[in-house]
Amino acid sequence: MPLSKLQFKPGINREGTNYSNEGGWFNGDKIRFRAGYAERIGGWTRVSNTQVTGTPRKIFDFVTLDSQNLLFIGTEKKVFLENAGTFNDITPIRSTVSLGTNPVNTTGGAGSGVVTVTTQAAHGAIVGDFVTLASLTTTDGITAAQLNIEHTITSVPSTTTFTITTAGSATSGSTAGGGSSGTAAFQVNVGLNTTVLGSGWGAGTWGRFTWGSAAGSLSGQTLRLFSVDNFGEDLLFNISDGSVFYWDATNGTSTRAVRLDSLTGASDVPIVVRKLLVSDVDRHIIFFGTNPVGSGILDPLLIRFGSQESLTDFTPTATNTAGDLRLSKGSEIITAVQTSRQILVYTDQSLYSMQFIGAPFTFGISLLGDNIRIAGPNTAIAVNDIVFWMGQENFYAYDGRIQTIPCSVRDYVFNDMNNQQSFKFHAGSIGSQTEIWWFYVSSGATEIDRYVVYNYGQQIWYYGTLVRTAWNDRASGLRSFPQATGADFYLYNHEDGLDDFSTGSAVAINAFIESSDFDIGDGQQFMLVNRILPDLSFSGSSTGSPSALFTVKSRDFSGNNFTESPSGSAVRTATAPVEQFTEKIDLRARGRQMSVRVENTDTGVNWRLGASRLDARPDGRR
Q1: Which domain covers residue 575, as residue numbers?
Q2: Which among 47, 555, 581, 591 counts the fewest CB atoms within 10 Å?
Q3: Do the domain assignments include residue 440?
């Protein structure tokens, strides 16, 4: 019988059963498709061996006028600017208070570094906050140098006291000191690294307020998120449902960001904001979900914009372009995404288009669709002026009209998803591969552990497992590699090398792909497979003898388990660029249905599958 060519439809398909998807791929991890053929994804390396403080939920890169390429990193604890592998702490100072006379007490006792600090006014700190002490003197054996640095607050006994653990050791304990000129600079309060749900009807992500309650925000109940954009070479960012901050590039990366409303000339600058954007075409700063002029309460459907080209003028007058708009559909704005033509604004149940229209109204708003839901604030992304997003039960795109994207792994993804942690879900892109990646939390987890990819160039889907808490989808334009952060607090270059360098040394990436079942004819006959002629390219491998493992699985009925056959390897034995493969793999597998799997488990291996051939012939039952 002639050899059978193993050519499967590109993409993973999990919408039917294994057998009903005959001729396709059914499972895989850390693979992609190029020109219809499967290959493994690239590896990742640490940008720096330094960890950031906290779990990053937002990264964003931009360039200053002196050509510094900086990366904003926002965590639940701090804010950093990364430059050439160095992480600069620009976390804003919330308040600086005087400490009075002898405010330090060695309450930890003799031999302990624990001290209690007393402030003259209420400090507003919580456990885990960061505070920098200054101008204190040596107290009970704990030196001034050990006191006058940044500390983490370990407890808050009262509104005017807090405890810290120094690197020193008290001589006697229970001794007051520190002098009379000490100060404490408190950084913005730390946030949550997870979503804390309430109980009862309507508790959770979208139903955060009781029926009939006034518009507002339930502070501290969702994990800390950021929105960020550059205003020229400077940076604007806000903590979701919190304050807006400004970092001035002319002051350098050693200076901290400050509140936008603290700048000279600030006029009605919003003090609580859900999402910010800087309009590229007309240079307006726009806030989505914010407080009205004259109020400090967040209106979750209100949009406000400042005067054109202004950082600080948000007071609407007849001589400027500041103003506001209020949406009518939904109960709160979830997010906004900018394209070159418009800004798409998502509420919890609708989608709007916001466009610059000029004087006298500045911006116009139009409803694009009702009953439109988005999975989370960071699950929409604009690529080539098309906006893609993950909904609550499907994937969508907008290119002038709203479209549902046919998804061959829809049930697999949405039926194994922890929606209680949907604020952690986020989208990224790899432009060179025409890929949109959505990272999400599976049903049995509380942190990002899965991804699903839509290849919009080939219009196919695939998925895998990977912990990435934030993704820099602008990397293809400003940096050499796509960049992402993990729950291990490191920043990574992706598509860099072939292996996993999470631990600092090379670990093999176990990439595999597995086909759906196939048979002879309509499956009425058993078949015998006794050899494979592999077609596999190892171009780009860094090891001298790269190999991939072929496995043939067989079973008699769709409801049976597989019984694995003996397996073999296809090995390139000649040095590049000549590629010689194992001529054949001899094996003996027998069954009514077969499946093939290709994988690698060694470091330095790059593989791409071609059209391997199978020697399969009808066989009797005995």
Answers
A1: 4-43+509-619
A2: 555
A3: no
